Amino acid sequence: MFKKKILIIAFIMLVLLLSISCTPNKNESLKIQADRDIYTPLMSSTVGIGLTPEYLSKRNLETVKFHWKTNYGYFISWNSPDFKVNMLGAEVINGGEKIYWSYDPNEIGVNKPDVKISLKIEDTKSEKTLAETNLDIIWEDTGTAKVKK
Questions:
Q1: Among candidates 106, 93, 105, which has minimal Cα distance to 65?
Q2: Inter-residue contact 17 to 46 (CB < 8 Å)
Q3: Is 51 exposed, middle or buried (0-12, 13-18, 19+ CB in 10 A)?
Q4: % of the chain residues with pLDDT over 70
Q5: 67 has which bridge partners?
Q6: Mind giving me the DSSP string for 65-108?
Q7: Rounded Cα gap, residues 74 and 93, in angstroms
Q8: Alpha carbon distance 8, 16 (integer Å)
Q9: pLDDT surpassing 90 at residue 80
Q10: Mean per-residue pLDDT for 36-44?
Q11: Is the separation of the CB atoms in 21 and 127 below 8 Å?
Q12: N or C: which end of the chain has fewer CB within 10 A?
């Protein structure tokens, strides 16, 4: 009977240990900062909604990667000094620099799904997720994307 109780306790502790090691670190904070609330591809002032990670951690940024995904649209890089537009696709890994989300201008006037942008911070060596967050974009009409607050 005593051995059975010890085995049960050991099993419970193992399950707890595994669940703690698989969850993101609570000391690491992550948010996605959008540079505008509303966007349409007809705007001439930008290529999309600018997205910047706000990552609070004591960790060296050289040991992490920023893993972006979207269920609709695509990501773009558009940076100085040349401000060349580079299409990146629906899944991007970068070093934490600002990227832009946009969608095909030919789809203005077409019903589109609500957009979920996810961002995970991952350790470059272990691939472990350190922090994660989402940003939702809804449609004001069939052409205007709006960051959900």
A1: 93
A2: no
A3: buried
A4: 82
A5: 93, 120
A6: EEEEEESSSEEEEEETTTTEEEEEESEEEESS--EEEE--GGGT
A7: 13
A8: 12
A9: no
A10: 95
A11: no
A12: N
What tokens appear for 114 in the block?
A: 């609500």
Q: Which fold has domain 27-147?
A: Immunoglobulin-like (2.60.40)
How far apart are alpha carbons 81 and 44 in whole angstroms? 18
Q: For residue 20, is pLDDT > 60?
A: no
Q: Which amino acid is at 104?
A: D
Q: Is the pTM of this model over 0.85?
A: no
Alpha-carbon distances of 25 from 16, 60, 149, rounded to whole Å? 15, 15, 25
Instruction: Count Cβ atoms below 10 Å from residue 94 Cβ, excluding itself.
Output: 15
Relative to beta strand 74-79, strand 84-89 is antiparallel
Neighbours of 50 (CB within 10 A): 17
